[in-house]
Design a protein that fits this description.
Layout: H1 2-23, H2 33-38, H3 42-52, H4 58-61, H5 72-81, H6 87-90, H7 95-102, H8 111-126, H9 143-161
Length: about 160
Amino acid sequence: MVVVFYSFCIQSFVRIILQELVRDPTMNICSHNETAAKEYLYLPLRLFIAISYGSSDPLISGGTTECGIQGPEDYQQARKAVAHNEWDSKGIISSEDYLKRLFEDDGSVIKVLEHEAAYLSKEETRRGRPRKRDQKETPSVNRVEMQERGDLCLKKNSQAMN
């Protein structure tokens, strides 16, 4: 669990860089990518929090080998790395809370997922496969279509940069 926690901490820096890139007017990046950058890793973060909910919080409980912290030195280094001594003054009560604040996740609906669902629904209708009345509003995500759209967006961005 600690390894995943640290991975999210590292990825929070990637999220910051992505947000800076989409805000840069010289990059000419697709408009919906601003939301995608803001919500970077929200779904995996929420899944991690849901899976680890109720388990021992290694940064609060003192750390144990089953949590991934090997000894007291590792425990102290982990707490220092996330400025645990400042958590009380910032109102942070757990590792879960720390990650939510790090990613600025307020728990609202993930807009990127709604956008993708709406896009796929339009594509199904355009291709002559309208959604049935009793079918769920959110279509299943076709990974090939998602990859093609991502590739197209990257191609547009690289052409704009040249």
